[in-house]
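Action item from last meeting closed. Structure (435 res):
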């Protein structure tokens, strides 16, 4: 354990956030404790006695800080002590070394950022504002010819500017490194937590399939052996159980699909979008639930991407365009547009559409705009699309109008194109999408 960690009270060592903040706080105070006596001795030697006394007070104050920290174990109280102590020291030194032109102005500037280590944002902003008010007050007094002394010899004046600047830069670098370290630690923790949740969702969903199969099997047995015994109410109840079991099965399959996306590596292979859509058209044509429809697409490029995810994205968007559609003749159109650095794939339908306030909500998991009695589905399809598009380095957006239809726009960097396709794609300016 390092010296800095030994000075952290046991209460704070177990919490990573407090441990990181206190490590930086203690480092700053240790530096002040070590540097202040050296500078105070130097000031005595050059005849700047007032400055020496102020820095001697600074040394005593920072020593008291460590006592206060370990006795009170109250970070906010220590923060108030540090801030007031630093204000007194910096303003006192400035008053003897030229006011707002003093090199110790930099010490004053450092108080605000350091206060964020002690306090929550609102309180830290208050102290930062208070420091600025102190500086403005001194500036106004100096403007009104208040006699701030200049007891620091001229030959040392600019040297102290360099010294204080270097000292402040060192502290700021340490603060930034500490914040970056904390951010990386939080990201690692969040990533591990997400992976654990995804594994849990996959395992839980997988284990739920077994009892659900048994429920379905017994529903079939009841239907086959006791259909003549049950009255109409009993048959209705059995049908409701079967419908809910089917819905549960679809939900589990979708959860598995959603969680599986993060466990599979994104591959790079030659993906001909024309072949993908032809396969999907054949696949959809075999499903009885889709009637009186048409899927159109203009010549589409070849991508250097993940075949499974690309097919998954288009399958969900096309099926959504047909499912959420009350038109007598349902139509889904896929278009391709190219710009200088991006390509755009537009999936248009003449479905029921939606209001603008739902544009973001529909991409969240389990979010549905209609109940299952009106339209089938689990509310995961578009969440899967968004996750897959992001994993491929793209973005997905939607524009829509109620009763007219929707346009889903997939935007990818041009680097997603297969190498031979890059030169052949003609630049076309994407029009403003309106439904």
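Sequence:
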């Amino acid at each position: 354990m390092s010296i800095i960690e030994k000075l952290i009270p046991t209460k704070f060592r177990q919490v990573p956030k407090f441990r990181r903040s206190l490590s930086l706080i203690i480092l700053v105070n240790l530096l002040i404790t070590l540097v202040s006596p050296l500078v105070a001795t130097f000031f005595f030697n050059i005849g700047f006695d007032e400055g020496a006394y102020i820095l001697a007070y600074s040394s005593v104050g920072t020593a008291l800080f460590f006592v206060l920290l370990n006795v009170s174990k109250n970070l906010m109280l220590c923060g108030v002590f540090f801030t007031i102590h630093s204000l007194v020291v910096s303003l006192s030194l400035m008053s003897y070394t030229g006011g707002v032109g003093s090199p110790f102005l930099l010490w004053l500037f450092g108080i605000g950022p350091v206060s964020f280590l002690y306090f929550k944002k609102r309180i830290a902003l208050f102290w930062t504002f208070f420091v600025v008010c102190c500086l403005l007050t001194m500036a106004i007094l100096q403007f009104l010819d208040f006699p701030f002394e200049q007891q620091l010899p001229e030959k040392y004046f600019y040297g102290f500017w360099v010294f204080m600047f270097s000292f402040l830069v060192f502290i700021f670098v340490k603060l930034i490194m500490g914040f970056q370290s904390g951010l990386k630690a939080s990201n690692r923790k969040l990533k591990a937590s997400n992976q654990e949740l995804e594994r849990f969702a996959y395992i839980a969903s997988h284990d739920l399939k077994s009892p659900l199969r048994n429920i379905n099997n017994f529903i079939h047995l009841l239907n086959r052996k006791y259909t003549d015994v049950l009255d109409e109410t009993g048959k209705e109840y059995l049908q409701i159980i079967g419908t809910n079991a089917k819905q549960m099965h679809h939900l589990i399959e979708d959860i598995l699909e959603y969680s599986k996306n993060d466990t599979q590596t994104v591959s790079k292979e030659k993906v001909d979008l024309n072949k993908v859509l032809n396969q999907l058209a054949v696949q959809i044509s075999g499903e009885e639930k889709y009637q009186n429809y048409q899927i159109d697409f203009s010549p589409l490029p070849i991508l250097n991407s993940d075949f499974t995810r690309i097919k998954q994205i288009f399958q969900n968007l096309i099926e959504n365009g047909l499912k959420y559609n009350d038109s007598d003749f349902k139509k889904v159109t896929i278009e391709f547009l190219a710009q200088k650095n991006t390509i755009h794939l537009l999936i248009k339908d003449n479905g029921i559409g939606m209001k603008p306030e739902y544009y973001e909500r529909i991409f969240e998991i389990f979010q549905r705009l209609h109940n299952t009695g009106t339209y089938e589905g689990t509310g995961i399809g578009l969440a899967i699309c968004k996750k897959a598009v992001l994993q491929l380095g793209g973005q997905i957006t939607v524009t829509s109008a109620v009763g007219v239809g929707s346009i889903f726009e997939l935007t990818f960097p041009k680097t997603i194109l297969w190498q031979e396709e890059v030169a052949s794609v003609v630049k076309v300016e994407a029009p403003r999408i309106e439904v």
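Note appended to the action item: The chain has three domains: 3-152, 195-263, 269-424.
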